[in-house]
Amino acid sequence: MNKDVFDVNHPSVQMAMVLKLQQMKRTQIPTLSYSDLEDYLTLFIWKNGTNDSLTEAVDTIWKIESRDIIRFLSNQAIREGAKMPIADFSEMIGG
């Protein structure tokens, strides 16, 4: 018997993600994108494995708070910026 994998590719999990995204965009982070939420789940929350049930996956999604996503996205931006050459920042720093 095949075991379902409740990750960001599961249709029911995707529906929960869309609903959470709409809630967060409406009340907390208007610029949040689906890919931001997907990255947060795959690269941080579920990096060591996904949930055993759909209920657990949806519960995890609904417990996400804006401050946690903002912290994650800030860290991602710092990591990506550290990999870029300084010339990519010349316009921002007046060079």
UniProtKB/TrEMBL annotation:
Domain of life: Bacteria
InterPro entries per UniProt: Post-transcriptional_regulator
Pfam family, one: Post_transc_reg
Protein name, UniProt field: Uncharacterized protein
